[in-house]
Amino acid sequence: MSYSLQTLVPLPVMLPLFAAGLTLALWRFPRAQRIISVTTLVLMVLAAVGLLVAADDGPLVVNVGGWSAPVGINLVADRLSALMLVVSSVMLLAVLLYSLGQGIADGDEAAPVAIYHPTYLVLAAGVSNAFLSGDLFNLYVGFEVLLAASYVLLTLGGTGERIRAGAIYVVVGLVSSVVFLVAIALTYAAAGTVNLAQLAERMPDIEPSTRLILELLLLLAFGIKAAIFPLSAWLPDSYPTAPAPVTAVFAGLLTKVGVYAIIRTQTLLFPDGRVDTVLLVLALLTMIVGILGAVAQNDIKRLLSFTLVSHIGYMVFGIALATEAGMSAAIFYVVHHITVQTTLFLVVGLVERRGGSTSLDRLGGLARAAPGLAILFFVPAMNLAGIPPLSGFLGKVGLLEEGARQGTPLVWVLVVGSVVTSLLTLYAIVKAWNKAFWQTPPADLPPVRLPRAMVGPTTALVVLGVGITVVAGPLYSYSERAAATLMDGTSYVDAVFPGGALRGEGESDEGKKVDGSIDGDDAEPEEEPTTAPGSIVSPEPGDPRTPEPTSARTSVGSSTGTDDTGPGGAE
Amino acid sequence: MTPSLAIVLAIGVLFATGVYLLLERSLTRVLIGFILIGNGANLLFLVAGGRAGGAPIVGLTPVGEMSDPLVQAMVLTAIVITLGLTAFVLAMAYRSWQLHGHDEVQDDLEDRRVARIAATNEPAYDDSDAADNTSLDDEASTVRDETSRLGEDDRRHRDGKDHPKDHGTQPGRSGTTSGGDPS
Question: What positions does the domain NADH:quinone oxidoreductase/Mrp antiporter transmembrane occupy (chain A) (predicted)?
C-alpha cells in the first residue's frame, strides 16, 4: 500500500491499542511497560499534530479496511477532531509521565501497576476512536472502549471507597450506554444507515417528530457522559476517589468526549436547532448548580469536580448559540478547559502529597512551605476562573460577545449567568487558596519532598496552559475555521462522499461493478421516510439487492466485532 | 414492513423488567436489569433490520429473501460488549461483598451529609471558628447509611483501609479532629 497523509488517521487508535496488548503480555516487566507506553503516547502526539496540520486543508477520510463509506466504517479527521486529538494526546502523555513519577516515588505496588498501563492505553485508543469515528455505531464502540477502561481505572486496587464510588459510576455508565444503543437502533430503523455523513443527508427527509426523538435520545446519552446538569450527579462523587492521575485524565477527557459527540451530532445531523432553547436552559442550570456545589465543598478534589460540571455549562452554552462564533468559542473553551482541569487535578495530587490531605480544614500554610507548589496551583486556578489575560478569559469573552450579539432575553440571562458563574468560580478558588495555602497549618506539615518526576509534567502542563494564552490568536482562528467546517453542513459530507458520489473512496470492487443497483438501493430509503413517517426503513422484499454490497456490509460489521474483542480481552 | 408483534412484546417486557431491576439497591440485580435491557436493545436492532429472512452472504437464499446482515453484526458487537461489562460488574459485586458483606450500591457521601444536616437542622455552611472541623468523610460516616447493616461498619472500613494517604500515614489526624484553628 502507499503511504500518504491518510495513513496518519488510524494511527491514534491503532498505536495505543496495539501497545495495550503488548504491555499486557509484558506485565512481568514494568520497565518495558513504561517504555512502551511513553513511546506510544509520544507517537500518538506526533500523529495528532500531523493530523492537525493536514486537516487544516480539508477533512481526511479513511475507509477502514478499504470498504467504501456508507457500507464500511470510516474514520474522519476534520479540524475539530484533530484539535481534540492533539489536546487529549498531550494530556494523556503528561498524565502518564506524572503517574510514572508517582510510581517511582512510591515504589511500585505490583498488583495495580501491571494492569495500569494496558488499561490506560486502551482508554487512549477509545478516546481517539470516539474523536475520529465517522460512524455512529463506531462512536458507540469508542465510547464503550473508553468507558470499560475507565471502570477499571476508577476501581484500581479495589479499596472499599473506590468500589463504593465505582459502583455508582459503573451503573450510570451502563445506563448511558444502553440509551445510546437504543438511540442507534432507532436511528437505523428510521434512516437505514449509521454512517454519519449518510445520516446527515437522510435526516432532513425523516419525519420531524421522529427526528426529534432521535435527537433527544442521543442528547440524553451524551449528556450523561458530558455531565450536563440533571445528569451530572454521578460525577462529583465518583471522580475524587480515584488516584490523582486517573482523576486528572477523567476530568480532562471523558466529559469532553461527551461534549465532542454533542457538537458533532448537533452540527452534522440536527442543524435545525430545535432543541437550542432546551440546551440554553440546561447550560444555565449546569453552570449555576455546578458552581453552587463547588462553593459548598470543603474538599479540594470535590470542589474541582463541581467546577468541572459547572464549566461544562459554558461549552453547552456555545453549542446552543448555534452560530459559527458561538461554536468556535465553545471549541476554544473545550481546549482550554481540558488543559486547565487536568493540570489542576495533577496539582491537587501534589498538594495531597505535600499537605497529607485534600480536606481544606486539614491543609494550610502551603504557600510558605512550598512556594513552587503555590505558583503551580495559582496560575491554572486563575486561568479556570477566567482572569484576564489567560485563556479562560478569552474563551468566556468569545461566548459573551456572541451572546450579547444575539441578544434574545434568554441568551442575556445566560450571559449574566456565565458572568456570575465566573465570579463564583473565583470565589471557590480563592477559598481553596486561602485555606490550603494561607491559613495557619492545623498541624505540622509532614516533611515530604515532592518527587521531581511528578513536578516536571505538572509544570509542563501549567506552562502549556499559559502557552494557550500566548498562541491564543492562531488557536482561536483555528477553532473558528473548525467551527466554519462544522456549521457549513457540506464539507464533512463532501469529504466522505467526494463529488456527491453515493459511496466513499474505497476498494470495494464489487460495489463498482454493480454500481447501478447500488444507486437504487441507496436512493430508496431516502424517499421512504417522507411517505411513511417514522416507519421502519429497510429494503422491501422485492428490492433488487445484490449479494456483493451485502457481503461488504458484513465484513465491515465483523471487523467491528474484532475491533471490540481487543479491548475486551485486554480488560 | 411490519415488525413481528412477538418481538415488540418481548422488547417491552425486557425493558420494563430491566428498568425495575435497575432501580434496586443490589448490584447483582442492577446487573441483571442491565442484561435484560441490553437484550431488549438487541431485539430492537433486529426489528430495525426489517423483515426476517434467510441467511445472508453465504448464498443459500435468493437476494430478495435475505435478512439484513448489518444489524446482526451490530448486535453481535453489542453482545460482546455486554459480556465484557457483565464480567466486570460481577467482579465488582464480589469485591463489594468481600469488603462490606453486601453488594449494594451505597449512598453518595453528599447525600449522607445532606441527610445529617437535614436531621439536625443545622446551617449547611462550615464555621471555621467552630471547634469541630470534621471532614466530609467523617461527617458522612456518622450518618446512618441505608445500606450498611451496622452503624459503625462504614467508619471502620474507611479508617482502616481506604485512605492510605489521608489516614494511614498520619494516624494522629484521622481519628481526632484537630481542634480550634481559627484562620
Answer: 133-421
Residue B182 placed within a domain = no
Handedness of CA A355, A356, A358, A364 (dihedral sign): negative
Contact A568 B83 (CB under 8 A): yes
**Considering only CB atoms, which chain A residues are within 8 Å of B71?**
188
The DSSP symbol for B145 reads P
**Dist CA B173 CA B176 (whole Å):** 6
Q: What residue numbers bound the domain in which B84 lies? A: 5-100
CA-to-CA distance for A69 and A46, rounded, in angstroms? 27
Tell whether A194 is within 8 A of chain B (Cβ).
yes
Task: State whether B42 and B73 are in the same domain.
Answer: yes
What H or E segment, with its residue span, contains residue B56?
A: none
Asked whether the bond before A389 is cis by omega within 30 degrees of 0, the reply is yes
Tell me the three state secondary structure of residue A127: helix
ipTM (interface pTM) = 0.81
pLDDT in tens, A207-254: 999 999 999 999 999 999 999 988 888 888 888 888 888 899 998 899
CB contact A39 to B (< 8 Å): no
List, for residues B161-177, the tens digit of each pLDDT value: 444 444 333 333 333 33
Whether B32 and B76 share a structural domain: yes
Residue of A nearest to B41 (CA): A182
Q: Can you give the pTM of this predicted structure?
A: 0.82
DSSP state of A543: -
